[in-house]
Design brief:
- By secondary structure, the chain is an all-beta fold.
- The protein has one domain: Immunoglobulin-like.
- The strands form four sheets. Strands 3, 4, 5, 6, 9, 14 and 15 form a seven-stranded antiparallel sheet that branches. The chain has a four-stranded antiparallel sheet with strand order 1-2-8-7.
- The protein contains one helix and 15 strands.
């Protein structure tokens, strides 16, 4: 993580021997692919927070929630931040199960001007010493190779297309997080880690 007068920068390296992705549409339900996710609650009140997801194809999904799903929150879809920049780099061959990959990396520049709407109790850009609640997640689906293609093992329970609420689904996937929350549910913003802005 880094920051300047214009952006909050986030970068991630994801080791992965099988890099694949299927979703090319912007603001589709990105966690149906392996993805990297960023959650930002600038004022730390657990309400009105921002979520960003990206897959190995560079497709992105931006949304926000007025409150967590478990508290009756309904997502606001496609709340794209003007000026946001993102990129991925694949170290290997995308969607080719015939070889072993090294992984993929993500870089995102979040514009302060867009994040300000989620920081009603503070200043944006932040001041040195300010603290924001943030978390990162990596969703990693189990897969099979069928006729030379990667095929995601589908979820059990409520189909993904019918519900965005993670509490209603059972997934055959792994989830890694930066700041552990004690539950397989990213939508516990009061349990996210704290980012302190330094010089």
């Amino acid at each position: 993580m880094a920051w300047d007068d214009d952006f909050l920068y986030v970068g991630a390296e994801l080791e992965e021997p099988h890099v694949w992705g299927t979703i090319t549409e912007k603001n589709a339900v990105m966690f149906e692919d392996n993805d990297f996710e960023v959650f930002i609650d600038p004022d730390g009140d657990g309400l009105d927070y921002y979520e960003f997801e990206i897959n190995a194809l560079g497709s992105i999904w931006e949304l926000s929630l007025p409150r967590p799903y478990g508290e009756g929150g309904v997502p606001i879809l496609g709340c794209n931040l003007p000026g946001l920049r993102s990129a991925v780099q694949v170290r290997g061959t995308l969607n080719d199960p015939g070889d072993v990959d090294e992984g993929w990396s993500v870089e995102v520049a979040f514009p302060w001007a867009g994040l300000a709407q989620f920081n009603k109790k503070g200043t944006t850009p932040p001041q040195v010493g300010d603290i924001w609640k943030v978390n990162f997640s990596r969703v990693q689906w189990r897969h099979e190779v069928v006729e030379g293609r990667y095929v995601r093992i589908p979820p059990h329970g409520t189909p993904l297309a019918e519900s965005l609420n993670p509490e209603e689904q059972e997934h055959p996937e792994d989830n890694w997080v930066w700041s552990p929350q004690g539950a397989v549910n990213m939508h516990l913003p009061t349990r996210w880690g704290e980012v302190v802005f330094g010089e």
